[in-house]
RNA sequence: UGUCCGAUAGUAUAAGGGUAGUACAACGGUUUUUGGUACCGUUUGUCUUGGUUCGAAUCCAGGUCGGACAACCA
């Protein structure tokens, strides 16, 4: 009966390392550069790193990879922390690569002393020219064989700010003919007279990624340093530095990053969407950012579930958006209270219900909850708003909704029969006239009438109005990255539809930012932060699954 | 014309020499006061050619296809 869940390849490595006694404690890290907002791809890495130590014990550090002062900001540090916390994870230590600048500097000196690094004064172009190409070996720099003393002196002066940006670099002395471009004497320190968001102006030289990441891992005794596939070729360098520096041997493992259909994930492109006002900021509900998903109404649980379901492997992948939608529906179906809202209203008048009279009906909040999720009061009267699309003047085959002579149940209320309808001079239906069956009241229906359709409604006299924002996929192409031309040419012009005057049931007036609702038959919605006391704004998180085949 | 990584239904992901399984999607049905949910069912797969073996998705070799690598970015 062992329903053993299969392990992904990283879990296998971890289990082996733990079982063999190679490590006593598992230590991982999540290492974002604070130069942008976190997105769903980062969520995959977060769930992996934190999930591993939750499962196997040990702990996970949050380490900001802040070695490039010109792109990094405290604003991003803060948002990234907020997003990780929102996802439900707690880091052991909050750390910064910039904490290690002194140690990193000492590592560089050690390398120079071992004859394994040298100061180069070639320009960027000159370095590039000698670098070779993936298919041709590179050539040694004319400055490659300086004496150790000279290297030490120059590096000290680099640190002391004697030179301008780009005048000198410190390079590891490896092999200019290596088939791995990264081993061709990579630059490990560069001069940047720039203020750092944490170290201020203390430094004017900053280590490169390859001379900071592995060393930081090592300083923190990270056992499994997990990153994405584009770092595979960095692993050789990662190991080389650890070996030459004789420091704790962290090991790097790579998995395939997440790609999602109908969106883009690269920071550069997301930044472009924000900067060019093609979306309304990093937390625009159409963005794949964690803050965007949060504002859209996704729950942390649903995002974690998604990350669990997509799996971890080494092959390039493109996950269908429908899986993400499934995960949020699955969660909200169980947790979101059902309410009624009419998005595209048309008036329905009940001719045999006394004008001016109203009654309070009882609505079950959530049929998926054990106790029905409690109940609420829903006012009913002779004039209601219903959804325009729930009426067809000439009904299609298998039409369960309203049409001349047809009967439907009004959810939580009575069965009504369409007796007549009114059109304006343009032929637009403006009003539907019905009679109701007083003995068909929900809960004590003695009418014996059976109807196929149930529709939602709001009492016109009691309704509140709200703005409702409907979101659709951001791009019309499933693979905007792969299309010809600019990815922005494939933006979906209908990714946002604003309905300024929808009608909502009065109980919704007390909605707060943490509540999630199912608008019956219309989807899952949450209150947007743009809401004010006078104007409520709701975001559609996702539609309900719709298996109804639209008649044409 | 290099080095490295990869290839299992439409999309992902298992099976680690012994029945190709699961999820999402799609399609059909039952239930239903949400055309929702739940439940049941159907369709669809091992890149290719050889080799090893009683037996290969799995091991080996060649090929094909896809991806990564020439930032003083991470």
Automatic annotation (TrEMBL):
Q: Which residues form the Glutamyl/glutaminyl-tRNA synthetase class Ib anti-codon binding domain?
A: 336-436
- Give EC number(s), comma-separated: 6.1.1.18
Protein name according to UniProt:
Glutamine--tRNA ligase
Principal location listed in the UniProt entry: cytoplasm
- Per the database record, which ranges form the Glutamyl/glutaminyl-tRNA synthetase class Ib catalytic domain? 26-333
- NCBIfam families in the cross-refs: glnS, PRK14703.1
Amino-acid positions noted as binding L-glutamine in the UniProt annotation, renumbered to this chain: 65, 209
* Xref: Gene3D superfamilies: HUPs, Ribosomal Protein L25, Chain P
Q: Where is this motif: 'HIGH' region?
A: 32-42
The protein's gene is named: glnS
Indicate which residues form the motif 'KMSKS' region: 264-268
Q: Which GO terms describe its molecular function?
A: ligase activity
Locations listed in the record? Cytoplasm
User: Is Electron transport there in the keyword field?
Assistant: no
- Quaternary structure (record): Monomer.
